[in-house]
């Protein structure tokens, strides 16, 4: 049982899920049976996963993979915490890093925690299962195992940043990364993505990859951005596959994308262009970029929809198609010449009409007088004899 607890997470999960060992009699399994089960588990995974497990320095992997020592010597100078493009973490490796650890597997560095578990502060998560040695910015304490679980939750989609009552500092990720190399590198990678303004983010044009491409580095040359994960070249202006010698053409892609959003009842954020899916609830959407808008029409939300949409609807009734919205979705070509979202407030506003001048009191019109004396109440004298 002790040997099984020291196995890599993925290896132990494969052993249980494929029935190589019986979970009910696991505590009675011998070391030889555990080693054989681990060998069977490693035999059914692809080479990429074997390499990922080897990088986590699983003791069983080192025993059954040939020439592993040579690979370790070749990589002695590689720092797993180096956030350089060559060390970019792909989606597959990200999923492995964020995989839930087994609840009964304790890290070796936590062994000392059990000696003083009845003294001092308790972990705010597991309430004293182990003596916590990690004080967080908010004042709470966490044991190392719960800290790693907290960090993994914050690095998943929609969970940024890793936090307790307040966001965690980089030093806490470094503390957890000692037990699982690569976690800090993933943290720095996701932090750069989230700190980049939504309209400036560029993702790999290859649909099977779609990795975030940092805006600075040796992989950027003019408008050409090479994906650090798969090597695909993406145009920074139109976000499509690089097209040397041809102008950017995104109109067709915009039309197809708007059709897809209408078909699947999706709405783009008017500020950052992030596509939002509403699983249920009211129409008030707060995008991760901070902008609040109405899911039905895309209008701004200031306590309510500024365009009069109701708070709820049934089966998407009343939803405004993306093409008919005032804030149109379109991809960026030149940020200075073509704004990503054309908003009414972005357009030049007409000058207001001049205010009417106050009307002065005009004298009432008078009938035309034949004789000037009549203006003073005089009459022209009547000639004699008339």
UniProtKB/TrEMBL annotation:
Keywords: Metal-binding, Repeat, Transferase, Ubl conjugation pathway, Zinc, Zinc-finger. Residues 64-88, 329-386 are annotated as: Disordered. Pfam families: IBR (PF01485). Residues 69-79 have a biased composition (Acidic residues). It catalyses: [E2 ubiquitin-conjugating enzyme]-S-ubiquitinyl-L-cysteine + [acceptor protein]-L-lysine = [E2 ubiquitin-conjugating enzyme]-L-cysteine + [acceptor protein]-N(6)-ubiquitinyl-L-lysine. It is an enzyme of class 2 (transferase). One of its GO terms (molecular function) is zinc ion binding. GO terms for biological process: protein ubiquitination. Its EC number is 2.3.2.31. Residues 116-313 form the RING-type domain. InterPro entries: E3_UB_ligase_RBR (IPR031127), IBR_dom (IPR002867), TRIAD_supradom (IPR044066). Residues 358-373 have a biased composition (Low complexity). PROSITE patterns: TRIAD. The keyword Zinc-finger applies. Residues 347-357 have a biased composition (Pro residues). This is RBR-type E3 ubiquitin transferase. The lineage of its organism: Eukaryota, Fungi, Dikarya, Ascomycota, Pezizomycotina.
């Amino acid at each position: 049982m002790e040997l099984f607890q020291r196995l890599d997470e993925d290896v132990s999960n494969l052993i249980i899920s494929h029935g190589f060992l019986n979970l009910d009699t696991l505590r009675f399994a011998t070391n030889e049976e555990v080693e054989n089960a681990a060998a069977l588990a490693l035999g059914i995974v692809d080479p990429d996963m074997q390499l990922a497990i080897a990088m986590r320095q699983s003791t069983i992997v080192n025993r059954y993979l040939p020439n592993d020592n040579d690979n370790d010597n070749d990589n002695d100078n590689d720092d797993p915490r180096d956030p350089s493009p060559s060390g970019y973490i792909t989606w597959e490796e990200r999923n492995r890093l964020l995989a839930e650890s087994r609840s009964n597997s304790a890290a070796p560095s936590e062994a000392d925690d059990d000696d003083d578990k009845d003294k001092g502060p308790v972990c705010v998560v597991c309430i004293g299962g182990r003596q916590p040695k990690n004080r967080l910015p908010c004042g709470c304490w966490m044991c190392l195992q719960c800290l790693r679980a907290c960090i993994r939750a914050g690095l998943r989609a929609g969970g940024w940043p890793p936090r307790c009552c307040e966001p965690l500092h980089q030093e806490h990720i470094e503390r957890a990364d000692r037990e699982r190399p690569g976690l800090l590198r993933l943290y720095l990678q996701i932090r750069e993505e989230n700190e980049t303004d939504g309209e400036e983010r560029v993702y790999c044009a290859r649909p099977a990859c779609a990795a975030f491409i940092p805006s600075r580095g040796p992989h950027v040359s003019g408008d050409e951005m090479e994906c650090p994960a798969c090597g695909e070249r993406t145009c920074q202006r139109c976000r499509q596959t690089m097209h040397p010698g041809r102008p950017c053409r995104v109109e067709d892609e915009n039309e197809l994308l708007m059709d897809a959003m209408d078909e699947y009842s999706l709405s783009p954020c008017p500020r950052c262009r992030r596509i939002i899916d509403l699983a249920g609830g009211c129409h008030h959407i707060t995008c991760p970029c901070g902008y609040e808008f109405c899911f039905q029409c895309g209008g701004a939300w200031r306590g309510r929809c500024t365009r009069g949409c109701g708070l709820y609807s049934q089966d998407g009734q009343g939803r405004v198609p993306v093409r008919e919205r005032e804030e149109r979705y379109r991809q960026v070509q030149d940020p200075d010449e073509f704004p990503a979202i054309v908003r009414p407030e972005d357009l030049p506003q007409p000058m207001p009409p001049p205010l009417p001048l106050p009307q002065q009191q005009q004298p009432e019109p008078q009938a035309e007088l034949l004789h000037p004396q009549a203006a003073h109440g005089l009459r022209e004298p009547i000639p004699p004899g008339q």
